[in-house]
């Protein structure tokens, strides 16, 4: 998979659902259309729910990678308004 240069990063590994998506949504709100956000999230509910919610908002998932330590890195391209 290609490497990406993110415009912003958010770490939600210590946050519980449903606040996980709220933090990602706030981070995406400050980005411009087409910019990239990387999200570090924990296994379990966050990795199941956050990517789905991001897609439902119309954003593009570019990558979801297992970091091998119980966390994942999600790369999201912000959609147009």
Task: Explain briefly what this protein structure is.
This protein has 81 residues and is α+β, with helices and mostly antiparallel strands. It has one domain: Translation Initiation Factor IF3 (2-Layer Sandwich).
What does this structure look like?
The protein is an alpha+beta fold and 81 residues long. It is 28% helix and 31% strand. It is globular, with a radius of gyration of 11 Å. A four-stranded mixed β-sheet has the order 1-2-4-3, covered by helices on one side. Strand 3 (60-66) and strand 4 (71-77) form a beta hairpin. It has a single domain, classed as TusA-like domain (Translation Initiation Factor IF3, 2-Layer Sandwich), CATH 3.30.110.40. Helix 1 (19-29) packs across helix 2 (45-56). It contains two helices and four strands.
Q: How does the overall form come out from the CA principal axes?
A: globular
Number of helical segments with 4 or more residues: 2
> The CATH topology is what?
Translation Initiation Factor IF3
CATH superfamily: TusA-like domain
Span of the ends, CA to CA: 27 Å
Question: What is the class in the CATH system?
Answer: Alpha Beta
Strand order of the largest sheet: 1-2-4-3
Largest sheet: 4 strands, mixed
Structural class: alpha+beta
Gyration radius, rounded? 11 Å
Helix percent band: 25-40%
Give me the CATH architecture, please: 2-Layer Sandwich
- The succession of helices and strands, N to C, reads EHEHEE
Total of domains = 1
Please provide the count of β strands: 4
What labels describe this entry?
81 residues; alpha+beta; Translation Initiation Factor IF3; 4-stranded mixed β-sheet; 2 helices; 4 strands; 31% strand
């Amino acid at each position: 998979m290609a490497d990406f240069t993110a415009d912003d990063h958010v770490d939600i590994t210590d946050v519980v659902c449903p606040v996980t998506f709220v933090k990602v949504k706030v981070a995406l709100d400050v980005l411009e259309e087409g910019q990239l956000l990387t999200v570090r999230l924990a296994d379990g509910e966050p990795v199941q729910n956050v990517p789905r919610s991001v897609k439902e908002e119309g954003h593009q998932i570019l990558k979801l990678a297992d970091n091998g330590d119980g966390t994942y890195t999600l790369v999201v391209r912000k959609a147009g308004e």
